From TrEMBL:
Transmembrane segments: none annotated. Belongs to the LysR transcriptional regulatory family. Residues 2-59 form the HTH lysR-type domain. InterPro entries: LysR-type_TF_proteobact-type (IPR058163), LysR_HTH_N (IPR000847), LysR_subst-bd (IPR005119), WH-like_DNA-bd_sf (IPR036388), WH_DNA-bd_sf (IPR036390). Keywords: DNA-binding, Transcription, Transcription regulation. This is LysR family transcriptional regulator. It comes from Methylobacterium mesophilicum SR1.6/6. CDD domains: PBP2_CrgA_like (cd08422). It comes from the Bacteria. It holds the Pfam family LysR_substrate. GO terms for molecular function: DNA binding; DNA-binding transcription factor activity.
Length: 309
């Protein structure tokens, strides 16, 4: 197979009229240029350049080959420019995953804004509380609200998120509020359950130690917003990120319990494959989403006197 380098050496030799001039422009020795042209001619089975002591010129076969080689190099240059442009301008398909609640309230409204600015990018948004396999699903950006495990993906952290146990006043009127973590075992706990979920084991911080409890309840769901609605209806105690229930706490519709032994915190952040060779569409979406999440969390925490993130 003829290499692109051999084609470029041939073109430059034909244009300059000598192996020496071609070698100087390509930073190759005349002997290397001569050898590459000879090898090319042997491969094609015909003479491409006639050589004299004073000058070289194209043969008829050489002229035909020269014209075709110009087309080839032009096509390669256009392909290179297309890739460079694709890396500089957001375009293509962007696959995004996010938790249901944050996805509905923050990420989904952001997508039309992103598309208004970058209409050449198609967005595939998948909302789920289940932590998808980012490699298997070929995800470009994952918004995660969880305890981050080691990952080959790059994490752009938004904030460390406090969580809270809370229930409606109506529930606590019928069921005495838990005084110690172990008391949760006697309560209806509203659980986020899906394949691989760990929400039915609640881990609380007790001084310098943590305690993990195998809590249970009569109802569970795979949607965090459903759990919040059930808690508001007085169905049990729920474990939620503080910012997600801040408005309900501020208005007294939910009441915190076990404040002296809070749940362990989780990390809110964006995962994406790598900082190196990051596509323009991914970088732009990550930047926009990071700011939108930071602003949303800060606004919600302000309702309960929390600091901005």
């Amino acid at each position: 197979m003829i290499s692109l380098e051999s084609i470029r050496i041939f073109l430059r030799s034909a244009e300059t009229g000598s192996f020496s001039a071609a070698g100087r422009s390509l930073r190759l020795s005349p002997s290397v240029v001569s050898y590459r042209i000879q090898t090319l001619e042997e491969h094609l089975g015909c003479l491409l350049l006639t050589r004299t002591t004073r000058r070289m010129s194209l043969t008829e076969a050489g002229r035909i080959f020269y014209d075709r080689c110009l087309d080839i190099t032009a096509a390669v240059e256009q392909a290179e420019k297309s890739v460079e442009t694709a890396g500089a301008v957001p375009r293509g398909v962007l696959k995004v995953t996010a938790p249901l609640g944050l996805g509905r309230r923050v990420v989904a409204p952001l997508v039309p804004r992103f598309r208004d600015r970058h209409g050449e990018t198609d967005v595939r948004l998948r909302l789920s509380e289940h932590l998808l396999d980012l490699v298997q699903e070929a995800v470009d950006v994952a918004i995660r609200l969880s305890q981050m495990r080691d990952s080959t993906f790059t994490l752009r952290k938004v904030a460390e998120i406090e969580r809270v146990l809370c229930a409606a006043p109506a529930y606590l009127a019928e069921h005495p509020a838990p005084a110690e973590p172990a008391d949760l075992l006697q309560h209806d706990c509203l659980l986020l359950r899906y394949p691989g979920a760990e929400q039915f084991r609640w881990t609380l911080v007790d001084g310098q130690e943590t305690v993990t409890l195998p809590v249970s309840g009569h109802i569970d769901a795979d949607d965090g917003d459903t759990l919040t609605a059930w808690a508001l209806a007085g169905e049990g105690i729920v474990l939620k990120p503080l910012f997600e229930v801040a408005a309900h706490l501020a208005e007294g519709r939910l009441v915190p319990v076990l404040e002296h032994t809070p749940p362990t915190s989780v990390t809110l952040g964006l995962l994406y494959p790598s900082r190196k060779m990051l596509s323009a569409r991914t970088k732009t979406f990550v930047d926009m989403t990071h700011e939108a999440l930071r602003q949303h969390v800060s606004e919600q925490l302000a309702l309960v006197g929390g600091r901005a993130v």
